[in-house]
Amino acid sequence: MAEFDGFLPGPRLSRRLLLRSTAVAAGALTLAATVPAPRSSWPDGEGVRIAFLGFTGMTVLDLVGPWQVLRIADGTARLHVLAADSGLIRSDSAMGVEATATLAGTPGADVIVVAGAANPFPALRDRRNIDWLREHGPKARYLTSVCTGSLLLAEAGLLNGVPATTHWAFREELAARGAHLSTERVVRHGNVITAAGVSAGMDMALHLAAALWGQEAAMRAQALIEYAPEPPFAAGHPEQLPPALGAALRESMRTHVAKARHGQPHGL
Amino acid sequence: MAEFDGFLPGPRLSRRLLLRSTAVAAGALTLAATVPAPRSSWPDGEGVRIAFLGFTGMTVLDLVGPWQVLRIADGTARLHVLAADSGLIRSDSAMGVEATATLAGTPGADVIVVAGAANPFPALRDRRNIDWLREHGPKARYLTSVCTGSLLLAEAGLLNGVPATTHWAFREELAARGAHLSTERVVRHGNVITAAGVSAGMDMALHLAAALWGQEAAMRAQALIEYAPEPPFAAGHPEQLPPALGAALRESMRTHVAKARHGQPHGL
């Protein structure tokens, strides 16, 4: 079994790293048919420690998009999917993703990537998420988010007056938590990089990869995932939709957010 | 907990569907902290049955990109992550994703989405994948793939003479298996839709969503995942990279593919 790391061009990969990658791949094969116990600490190595903060109800592409970009961009990076609880993280589209460590068992990280959710309010009310971010966020080299993940950063007091973005349906929620609202797709302010809704996480991760490992590493990762997008429609924002459809979508999202905020399950 | 399905505009969601969605969400909450046993059959309902074929070493974004698009595009769709073995699917970037059913336990599907891998050769040699595709592929309403997933379709004899695409590094491998090689990002030929590398799966899924549920459903999904890409670099293909970097990447991938084909672990 190969990892994309395995075929990055030469100079970045020492023999030691190549050997380590092989060991990792062999371990992954052994684990394939079982659910491993969450690791409580970072894998050995000197690479950047990147913590992906997930939670029940997260949007799976928020997490997987940046994960894929960052994992390919540098073979030495050490990645964890963190969650308050161990086991599978059940996403808001029902897919289950493995949490590799719990928040309580994991010290800080060099880079934090916070996923979002169609309904972020339960995660916002879970103090384990917010307390972990409040403790470890200020010590991270980069603090990043995708979609409504920026609401968690803001709830932890990390975006006060900081220019930041989020999913278009949650802009007021972000502003209400003290951020300086931006409507850009990716917003960098110092070491804080936030992304708009769901798919914007890949764009964010390419910016982040360039910051961490240089532009060449980011460009190589982009070519390896063949990220030369050709969406069939100009429909990436409600204002690009046919007017009636755009208005209906905005309205249904307003209703959804209002109800979700007040704890009504499923936005009904 | 809300799912994106929960806030799609009115007319598509009957009261019955809304109630069903609520039940699904409640079930997901219950399962959140445990690893459920794979389901052996499709969830009840009349929606389109979409099978995502995964395997050890798959590229996780190949599967998650289309999953996210299709799950949001229609709240009635019934989605399975299938794999030859039950339990977690260990991807080529180490992330673990839950298989919800095994190939052996699952009858055909209306739509099949085959994920790819940095090293697809072990999956190509696993007859369980190929036999399942050979049996159920011809009966599917749509037969689709992402990245090197098209090699599996071709290996199963489903792309003989059919225009199809794959990751840029694996084009010769696809042609060698009988497909009519295309270098387009998304190629549709009748009911067969194939996508280029990794991130192209989202573009493919939007085409597929439009075919299944109409253009409005696809556009709404696109707006909900805010897919208005802004990659920071023009680097989606090797030919867009600075020449030396592009040449090095092509060369390392040629070496990787040659070694992987001959079963050397990890392309080393």
TrEMBL record, chains A, B:
Residues 49-209 form the DJ-1/PfpI domain. One of its GO terms (biological process) is regulation of DNA-templated transcription. It comes from the Bacteria. It holds the Pfam family DJ-1_PfpI. PROSITE patterns: TAT. InterPro entries: Class_I_gatase-like (IPR029062), DJ-1/PfpI (IPR002818), INH-QAR (IPR052158), TAT_signal (IPR006311). This is Transcriptional regulator GlxA family with amidase domain.
